[in-house]
Amino acid sequence: MRELTVKKEEAKQRFDKYLVRYLQNTGIGFIYRMLRKKNITLNGKKAKGNEVLKEGDIIRLFLSDETVYKFQNGRFEDQFPVADHMKVIFENNQILAVNKPAGMLSQKAESKDVSANEYVLGYLISSGQMTTDDFYSYRPGICNRLDRNTSGVLLAAKTLPAARLMSDLIKTHSLEKYYLTIVQGVIKTKCQVSAYIKKDPSANKVQVKPFYFDGSQKIETAYDPVISHNDLTFLRVRLITGKTHQIRAHLAYLGHPVIGDIKYGNRKLDEYYKGTYGLKHQLLHAHQIYFPKQGEIPADLSGVCIEAPLPDLFFQILKDNGLTDTLTLNSEERTRI
C-alpha cells in the first residue's frame, strides 16, 4: 500500500487527472476500475474520480510496489544535468526564469535531446527544492518557447497553479515580451506593423504577406530603433502576437533581416559575421518580460519585469559597429512600446 498526501501546489485538480499523472503508463480505464474496486481511495472512502483535490487530502493506493513501479517505470530515465551556462535570473516559489543561451533547445525535439527543460529540472533537484519523486504528481516545465538559436528569458512553472496561470497569461497575450536584435539597414522611427503569416512545416519556414492568404494568421510586431550605424540598426522589438519565427520573418519581409539568420537573412552579410566572429546563430535576444498588474496575479509577480543580460558576443558586435554609444536598455530607462 502507498499513501500520498496532496500538497498545496497539487490541489484544485480532478482526482482522476492526478492519478493519470502519477501512474502515467496506465490508461484511464484502469484508473476507474481501481476506483470502483476501492483499490484507490480518497480520504479513506470510495471515490468516483471527478472529485477536486484539496490540500491535505489522503490518497491510498492498495497496489503492490511492483504494480506501481510498472506504471511509473521509464518516466524518469532522463538525465537532469546542471547547466552552468544557463543562469537563473528570477525565482520565487511559483516560477523561475533563466537566461537561455543560443544553441540550446527550449524543449526536447527527440528523446535523446537535453533541453533547457531538463536543465531546469536538474537545477530544482540540485538546489534541494524537489526530488524525482515529486515529479510523479507534477513535473515542472518550460512555459514559453524560444527558437533554438534565440537567447534570452525563458519561464518555467514550478507548481501546477503556476503552470495554469502562465498558460492563461500567454494565451491571452497578457505578458509584454521585448526582444533585442541587430538588423540590416537603417530604421529611424518606431512603428507597429501587421501582416499575415503561414508556416510551411516541410521547410520549417514561414511565409509573410501583407494580406490574408489561405491558412495564414494575422501578426503584429512593434519596434523601436535604439541606434543606427554602418547600415545596421540595433532594434528593440515588442512581440504582440507570438507566432513561429514571427520577428525574424516579419523584419526580413520589411527589408531588415536579422544578422546571422540563415533562414531569412542576407547570406553574404551572415557569412561575414560568421567568418569574423564565429557567429552561428541569429542575433535575436529575448530581453524582457513584463507581468501585468491587474487580474489574478500574485503580489510578487504583479508588474514585475524579468530581464536577461545580453550575451557577450552580441554585445561585442554592437560595440565593434558603433551601436553602443547611446545604449540605455534598463527597464526603468526605456519607455515601453
Automatic annotation (TrEMBL):
It holds the Pfam family PseudoU_synth_2. GO terms for molecular function: RNA binding; rRNA pseudouridine synthase activity. Keywords: Isomerase, RNA-binding. InterPro entries: PsdUridine_synth_cat_dom_sf, PsdUridine_synth_RluA-like_CS, PsdUridine_synth_RsuA/RluA, RluA_PseudoU_synthase, S4_RNA-bd, S4_RNA-bd_sf. It comes from Blautia liquoris. The lineage of its organism: Bacteria, Bacillati, Bacillota, Clostridia, Lachnospirales. SUPFAM superfamilies: Alpha-L RNA-binding motif, Pseudouridine synthase. It comes from the Bacteria. One of its GO terms (biological process) is enzyme-directed rRNA pseudouridine synthesis. Residues 13-73 form the RNA-binding S4 domain. It catalyses: a uridine in RNA = a pseudouridine in RNA. This is RNA pseudouridylate synthase. Belongs to the pseudouridine synthase RluA family.
